[in-house]
Amino acid sequence: MIRSKLLLVLAFVLVSSMTALGQTTDAAPDKSLIREVYFAKDDGTGKAGEEATSFVTTDVPIYCVVQLDSAVPTSVKMNLVAVAVPGVRAGTKVVSTTYITKDNQDRVNFSGRPAGQWVAGRYRVDIFVGNAPVVSREFAVQKATQAKPANKPAPPKDPSRLAGPITKANR
Question: When comparing pLDDT for 163 and 29, which is higher?
């Protein structure tokens, strides 16, 4: 009886340790699942435009384009995370969305859109294919600068000052 309990406990410990070893999180992400990941601004028609490397607070939305290495249907997830954004705790998920590709689809266009404008700061996207983390990329959003007005002509001077004092001769 004691021997049976001891074997049962030993088997439990062995199975538990094997399960724990199989769940390591230190494994490197499998980047072979994607061809490229890049950020883009809106092209003016509501779609992702060309690759962009800098953004301002008025760039709404910002796209994250994921080009997969395969056209086999799969789940692709994007977490948009605040890294260093005033008023937002670091690590806060701003947007989290998942898309399941269809046959022969190897591109996913994710977008992030705040209510209003972006808050200037640093953000990160974490991309998962299936449930596996594949890549993380950071980007910064800068404050939009107001365009300086063109040199305006000086306002016209008061005509009464140009004419001088009114006298009988120039009335």
Answer: 29
